[in-house]
């Protein structure tokens, strides 16, 4: 029987998540992780498996956050409101000083599958609130537009853009998107 853990696994997972978010998977070494988590390599492996398993668990924790940009779209009752909620959340969260800037999922090359899944979730939500058959049929393209905007906002935030700067870009994106109805609402 092994010795009990002498560290808080949840706190260590949060630290690992922030380190991956800040540096990315490739630029984060096992030495970086053990130093940041304050544990030995054998303890890291015993608690989390290998680096990839730790990364996967950290990403799952990140995506389960109540501040999730994709989840923010649930607040909207039409396509424009869905995207507005997502973009406003992104501007606030990506520029926050409470954690690394930008978005872990949108800035990590290894997470293309997660981005594809988030885009599909957004497309389903946009179809659900579509005000016309035309708007519903364009949901995938509109979700792709939103995904491109979110990746761009994440990159802009990582480069130092303020929340206000991100909001202005998001507002411009909302002004140029199709309205989804013939009345222009």
Overview features:
mainly alpha; disordered C terminus; 185 residues
Structure description:
Helix 10 (139-158) runs antiparallel to helix 11 (163-176). The protein is elongated, with a radius of gyration of 19 Å. The model is unreliable at 181-185 (pLDDT under 50). The protein has helices at 9-23, 30-37, 41-48, 51-63, 69-72, 79-94, 104-107, 112-128, 133-137, 139-158, 163-176. Helices cover 67% and strands 0% of the residues.
Q: Can you write the helix and strand succession as a string? A: HHHHHHHHHHH
Q: Overall 3D geometry?
A: elongated
Number of helices: 11
Largest sheet report? none
Helix and strand content put the structural class at: mainly alpha
Low-confidence stretches: 181-185
Task: Tell me, rounded to a whole number, the average pLDDT.
Answer: 91
Query: Portion of residues in helices?
Result: 55-70%
Computed over alpha carbons, the radius of gyration is 19 Å
Q: Say how many strands there are.
A: 0
* Amino-to-carboxy terminus distance: 65 Å
- Indicate the proportion of strand residues: under 5%
């Amino acid at each position: 029987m092994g010795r009990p853990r002498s560290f808080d696994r949840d706190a260590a997972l949060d630290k690992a998540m922030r380190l991956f978010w800040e540096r990315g998977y490739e630029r984060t070494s096992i030495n970086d992780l053990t130093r940041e988590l304050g544990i030995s390599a054998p303890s890291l492996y015993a608690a989390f498996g290998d680096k990839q398993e730790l990364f996967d668990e950290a990403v799952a924790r990140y995506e389960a956050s109540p501040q999730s940009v994709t989840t923010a779209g649930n607040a909207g009752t039409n396509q424009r409101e869905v995207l507005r909620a997502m973009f406003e959340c992104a501007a606030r969260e990506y520029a926050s000083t409470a954690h690394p800037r930008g978005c872990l999922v949108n800035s990590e090359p290894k997470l293309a599958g997660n981005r594809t899944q988030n885009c599909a979730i957004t497309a389903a939500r946009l179809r659900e609130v579509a005000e016309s058959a035309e708007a519903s049929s364009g949901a995938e393209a509109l979700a792709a537009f939103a995904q491109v905007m979110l990746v761009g906002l994440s990159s802009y935030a990582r480069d130092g853009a303020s929340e206000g700067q991100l909001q202005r870009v998001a507002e411009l994106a909302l002004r140029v998107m199709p309205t989804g109805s013939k009345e222009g609402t």
